[in-house]
From TrEMBL:
Species classification: Bacteria, Pseudomonadati, Bacteroidota, Flavobacteriia, Flavobacteriales
GO terms of molecular function: dioxygenase activity
Cofactor entry: Fe cation
Classification via Gene3D superfamilies: 2,3-Dihydroxybiphenyl 1,2-Dioxygenase, domain 1 (3.10.180.10)
Start and end residues of each VOC domain: 27-157, 184-343
Source organism of the structure: Flavobacterium suaedae
Assigned protein family: Belongs to the 4HPPD family.
Keyword Ligase: no
UniProt-recorded name of the protein: 4-hydroxyphenylpyruvate dioxygenase
Length: 386
């Protein structure tokens, strides 16, 4: 995948006042999952989500204790890693959390500086700056812990032109399903424990220089049964957005509590990926077997013109098509957005995906929270975890 590093197109202009400049982030570099069977997980992401084979590391490349498959779709890179031996420390991650996200890697200009600036502000180190080399150049990586066992890895690849990273070889496959139009990671959401949201908001402010640019309290995010609170953290150029959720008291068990119980602590709840054509993307994903949450009721779609107001004029999508696919609509002052959520993609009710198409709106679909959570609660009811 070509990711040319040119200083002219960094796009590091500050769009959020108050964000600090000590940690310039160019984008999401990769997301690494620890899974029970990486070979099969890779097949799922190719077949169902339209990812392409990119790189591989394992026994054939001299790695003895793990196998990793790297998948790509436009700017999104997933790394699926599994332990090969009983002694591997990765096993404990699977025992504790099931399949889940271990690393949210951030693309930086200078990994050593990113490590130094964040650890001096209180980040717990995960990996000291490390240089990896091969015939294509060098990559410098360093990592810090965030919530739970999740890690932010800083990746500096300006002196590298290989397919992914030293230690990996190109993965050529005879099986190459078409992409479904997923383009980049829009945001990644973390679930943290009771009374921990503000601790992590402050951590992202102090350690990473992020700003809190949107907040939702339990008065705004609730159903008849459950509630949660959420604060959206962003870096200065808006490329990295991490909403953080915390459960709130409700009559029944909220989806956040369910997550925390099954993930055995804080972790990544959902990955939102952007598309330019959500109808095409979601139709393809459904045809390939991806399961989405059930559609909101018909009354929800009758209310869409009200909700969109003046943005109705620019809306190109046919509401009945959105309804048939279960795609939700929300608007803010700047435009509208279309979004839909998958069911969890592993047996534990933990990580799921959001597919989002932004038509000017910068929000997160607050107007859909109630319909969304009611849909999740119908699933929780079936699992006996509400
Ligand atoms: Fe989201």
């Amino acid at each position: 995948m070509s990711r040319e590093v040119k200083s002219v197109d960094y796009g590091l202009e500050k769009i959020f006042e108050g964000a600090q400049d000590f940690l310039p982030l160019l984008g999401t570099d990769y997301v690494e999952f620890i899974v029970g069977n990486a070979k099969q997980a890779a097949h799922f992401y190719k077949t169902a989500f339209g990812f392409q084979s990119l790189a591989y590391a394992g026994l054939e490349t001299g790695v003895k204790d793990r196998a990793s498959y790297v998948l790509v779709q436009d700017k999104i890179r997933l790394v699926l890693t599994t332990p090969l031996t009983a002694e591997s420390e990765l096993n404990n991650h699977i025992v504790q959390h099931g399949d889940g996200v271990k690393v949210v890697a951030l693309w930086v200009e200078d990994a050593r500086s990113a490590f130094e600036e964040t650890t001096k502000r209180g980040a717990k180190p995960y990996m000291e700056p490390t240089v990896e080399k091969d015939e294509h150049g060098e990559v410098v990586r360093a990592g810090i812990y965030t919530y739970g066992e999740t890690v932010h890895m800083f990746v500096e690849r300006k002196n590298y032109n290989g397919v992914f990273m030293p230690g990996f070889k190109e993965w050529k496959s005879d099986y190459n399903p078409e992409p479904v139009g997923l383009k980049y990671v829009d945001h990644m959401v973390g679930n943290v424990g009771w009374n921990e949201m503000n601790t992590w908001v402050k951590w992202y402010e102090d350690v990473m220089g992020f700003v809190n640019f949107l907040s939702f309290d339990d008065k705004q995010i609730h159903t008849e049964y459950s509630a949660l609170m959420s604060k959206v953290m962003s870096n200065g150029n808006g490329r990295i957005k991490f909403p953080i959720n915390e459960p709130a008291e409700g009559a029944k068990r909220s989806q956040i509590e369910e997550y925390l119980d099954f993930y055995n602590g804080p972790g990544v709840q959902h990955i939102a990926v952007a598309t330019d054509d959500i109808i095409k993307t979601v139709s393809a994903m459904k045809a390939r077997g991806v399961e989405f949450l059930s559609s909101p009721p018909h009354t929800y779609y009758e209310d869409v013109p009200n909700r969109l107001g003046e943005h109705m004029e620019i809306m190109k999508e046919d509401i009945s098509v959105l309804e048939s696919l279960g795609i939700m609509v929300d608007a803010d002052e700047e435009g509208y957005l279309l979004q839909i959520f998958t069911k969890p993609v592993e047996d534990r009710p933990t990580l799921f995906y959001e597919i989002i198409q932004r038509m000017g709106a910068r929000g997160f679909g607050a107007g859909n929270f109630k319909a969304l959570f009611e849909s999740i609660e119908r699933e929780q009811e079936l699992r006996g975890t509400l």
